[in-house]
Design goal:
Helix content is 57%, strand content 5%. It is mostly helical. The chain binds zinc ion.
Length: 646
């Protein structure tokens, strides 16, 4: 029997092979198609819709997960073979006319009109989703929408290829060692290795993240920094990788799509089912934060120029900021590592949220796993989860939470592994990552919503990071750190002086960091709300906007947005959604003020948080959930205070 065909809470990871994938998914697609046909003639299509793809979801989640953490060439090939079929099935649902008719017919019944609470919201969201996918358009409108979607997929793919090709096409090879002055040995070695790999003499620099950042942060020779900075900000700005006409095309297509579906602009279309709801609301939000950040931003820039003793160019900022940071704080993050051994951190985290949220976590033995390093746990009354913390060659990078079943989830990371017989010693950032992913996991496992598609983390995009980011706050409180941060050899707590340094370094040039994010958010909304074809080249048009958020004067050919993959590398991507980064930070900083005020271990506040936010999934409008917990709308002041900008 194929182990992927039936849902099993004890996922038989030890029995699933690459050869099982295609036959199982093909069979489950046939079954889902049959259920779809039943749903279209059902009197209550809503609940049928909610459970229609349960088995397929489960099997795909398991396969996708294995592909992420224990891939083999065979598994990857099998996954790539089924993935397009499965996504075509899912994306076909909102375009299925028979299904739409069934939903509409149901929505018109007295029974549907009498729905309340979660079921009412589920119906409204389902109807809205069909409409946003063009269900109500006439045949000509539907045909045009299809053309737009095809064109958007093509143009955005080309955009992303251009960025990749432009990035890879550029290199700078230095042969005079004196010009490398300032670079740390690791960056010099990497540049040497890069040159050797290309069969050239000297040191090779590229526009890839690590190479670019090392040059901008450390390299003394300003003329080299200038060359690299200019090249980076001109990626995709000229032939043969010219993204300028593509950006205009993408913006026009998105605009046309929004109008066709009855929205003012693309921002209003995208934000329709997000917490902000309207582009204007997101714009006001950014404007408010900007007003509160600008003064400190100008001061920071003046301080940096005073420190450098001269007017600064854009390619000087990162370099002098690093020098200033060292002069001011003398803080090396590595000093914290001995206090963060993985086992203590995880045990401390369970202890903290045992107190705050009332959860009881116990390790489980004998559960089948995909690798011997994986641990398994149970949360009393709430399900089970896997934790897989260390890098492996057959595992993808980054950290993430995923769900396999409503009461079954997993958290994965690529943390510093143990070496030389010592325990795994983490950076503070890695500790935050563990807390962050555990927050997503609790959002999933502590969900108490009866509709599957509205449960757990299936919430608006600008709300989903609240339950994860709020957890990171407990990594900055003396009281909670003292529960688990102990020197792995001596058992001593983090010394007061080191704790103070760590707190102060966090707020270094915070206004610049914030203005940078606000600038990207501004330009994103401006392009998707205000730009029109008559305005001409969007690159020229958006430069003065970005200038208002830059620490130094930008050159006249500055073209950062031609490499802005967040906005343009896929049909929606972060388009009109860049503001979400700051939005989520405001939510988590603000919501945490209740814990600050009522006690970071307060079980009463924790119970309230669990009841009003964590357990609710998407069963109510997130703005309502937030208000029910805080008694008011989000207030950005907590974020400003946390960043030292108040
Ligand atoms: Zn997250």
């Amino acid at each position: 029997m194929n182990p992927l065909l039936e849902i099993s809470f004890r996922v038989p990871f030890d029995k699933i092979g690459a050869a099982d994938v295609e036959p199982a998914i093909d069979e489950l697609l046939v079954r889902a198609q049959r259920k779809l046909e039943e749903t279209t003639v059902s009197k209550d299509p809503l609940m049928a819709l909610d459970t229609m793809t349960e088995n397929l979801d489960y099997a795909m989640a398991v396969v996708r997960h294995l592909e992420s953490v224990a891939t083999t060439p065979e598994l990857r090939a099998a996954y790539n073979a089924v993935q397009p079929k499965v996504s075509a099935f899912y994306s076909g649902l909102v375009l299925n006319e028979a299904l739409w008719n069934a939903v509409k017919a149901y929505a018109a019944t007295d029974e549907a009109r009498a729905l309340t609470g979660t079921m009412k919201r589920y119906l409204t969201k389902t109807v809205d989703s069909f409409k946003r996918h063009g269900a109500d358009l006439d045949p000509a409108g539907k045909a045009r929408l299809k053309e737009i979607d095809v064109a958007l997929a093509e143009v955005t793919t080309k955009f992303s290829e251009n960025v990749l090709d432009a990035t890879n096409a550029w290199e700078l090879v230095l042969t005079d060692e004196a010009r490398l002055a300032g670079l740390p040995p690791s960056a010099v070695a990497a540049a040497k290795a890069s040159a050797e790999a290309k069969g050239v003499e000297g040191w090779r620099f590229t526009l890839q993240g690590p190479s670019y950042l090392a040059v901008m942060t450390y390299l003394d020779d300003a003329s080299v920094r200038e060359q690299v900075w200019r090249a980076f900000n001109l990626r995709g700005a000229a032939e043969p990788f010219n993204n300028r006409p593509l950006i205009a095309k993408i913006l026009e297509l998105r605009q046309e799509k929004a109008r066709l579906l009855g929205f003012r602009d693309f921002a209003d279309l995208v934000l329709d089912d997000r917490m902000a709801h309207k582009g204007e609301r997101a714009q006001t939000f950014l404007g408010d934060l900007r007003k509160k950040t600008e003064k400190r931003f100008r001061e920071e820039n003046a301080e940096l120029e005073a420190f450098a003793g001269r007017a600064l160019e854009p390619w000087d900022i990162g370099y002098y900021a690093e020098k200033q940071r060292l002069a001011l704080y003398d803080f090396d993050e590595e000093e914290l590592r001995p206090y963060f051994s993985l086992d203590r951190v995880v045990a401390g985290m369970f202890e903290i949220f045992g107190r705050v949220l009332g959860i009881v976590v116990t390790e489980e033995q004998g559960v089948p796993v995909w690798n011997g390093a994986v641990k398994t746990y149970r949360i009393e009354d709430s399900g089970s989860f896997y934790a897989d913390w260390f890098p492996r060659e057959n595992k993808r990078g980054g950290a993430w939470m995923d769900s396999l079943l409503p009461r079954l989830g997993l958290i994965c990371g690529n943390l510093t592994p143990p070496v030389d017989g010592k325990p795994a010693l983490l950076t503070h950032r890695e500790v935050e990552t563990i807390f962050h992913e555990f927050g997503h996991l609790l959002h999933h496992l502590l969900s108490r919503v009866e509709v599957r598609s509205l449960s757990g983390t299936s919430v608006a995009w600008d709300f989903v990071e609240l339950p994860s980011q709020i957890m990171e706050n407990w990594c900055w409180e003396r009281e909670s750190l003292d529960l688990f941060a102990r020197h792995y050899e001596t058992g001593e707590l983090i010394p007061a002086e080191l704790f103070e340094k760590m707190k102060r370094a966090k707020t270094f040039r915070a206004a610049n960091g914030q203005m940078r994010q606000l600038g990207f958010g501004y330009v994103d909304l401006a392009l998707h709300r205000e730009w029109q074809a008559e305005a001409g080249d969007p690159v020229e048009w958006s430069r003065p906007i970005l200038q208002q958020f830059a620490a130094a004067r930008l050159p006249d050919n500055y073209a950062m947005i031609t490499g802005f993959t967040h906005l343009f590398a896929s049909p929606v991507a972060y388009g009109a959604g860049y503001y979400s980064y700051k939005w989520a930070e405001v939510l988590d900083a603000d919501a945490f003020t209740r814990f600050k005020r009522e006690g970071v271990f307060s079980a009463a506040t924790g119970r309230d948080y669990r009841e009003k936010i964590l357990s609710k999934g998407d069963s109510e409008d997130p703005a309502e959930l937030y208000r029910s917990f805080m008694g008011r709308d989000p207030d950005p002041n907590a974020l400003l205070e946390r960043a030292g900008l108040d």
